[in-house]
Amino acid sequence: MRNYIYKVVIFVLAIITVFEFTIGKHLNNLNQKINFFSTQEGRKELVTSLKKEIKKANEKENYLDEEERELLRNFIIKIKKELELNN
C-alpha cells in the first residue's frame, strides 16, 4: 500500500511539473498580454501602434503586389459568379 501511495505522489508531482514547464508558461504569457491590453496604458499603446501602421500603409503607393492582386481578383470574380447563380 505504501508503494502505491509513493507512486501516486511521484506521478502527481511529475504531472504538475510537466504542466508548469509546458502549458503553464504559455498560459502565463497569455495572461500577461491580456492584463496589459486591459489596462488604460495598454489600450493607449495599442491605439498608437494602430495609428502608426495605418499611416505607414497610407504612405505606400500600392497595398498589394502583383500576385496578391491576381488572387483577390480571381476570388472576387468567383464570388460574383456564385452570387449570380443563386439569383
What's the total count of β strands? Answer: 0
Number of domains: 1
**Number of contiguous helices:** 3
Largest sheet: none
Structural class based on helices, strands and sheet pairing:
mainly alpha
Oligomer: single chain
Which term fits the overall shape?
Answer: elongated
**Percent helix range:** over 70%
Instruction: Return the string of H and E elements.
Output: HHH
Q: What is the radius of gyration computed over CA atoms, rounded to a whole number of angstroms?
A: 26 Å
- On the 0-100 scale, what is the average pLDDT? 88
Percent of sequence in beta strands: under 5%
Regions with little confidence, pLDDT below 50 for 5+ residues: none
- The CA-CA distance between the termini, in Å, is 74 Å
Describe the secondary-structure layout.
Blueprint: H1 2-38, H2 40-59, H3 66-86
Structural overview:
By secondary structure, the protein is mostly helical. The chain has one domain. Helix content is 90%, strand content 0%. It is built from three helices and no strands. Helix 1 (2-38) crosses helix 2 (40-59). It is elongated, with a radius of gyration of 26 Å. The termini are far apart.
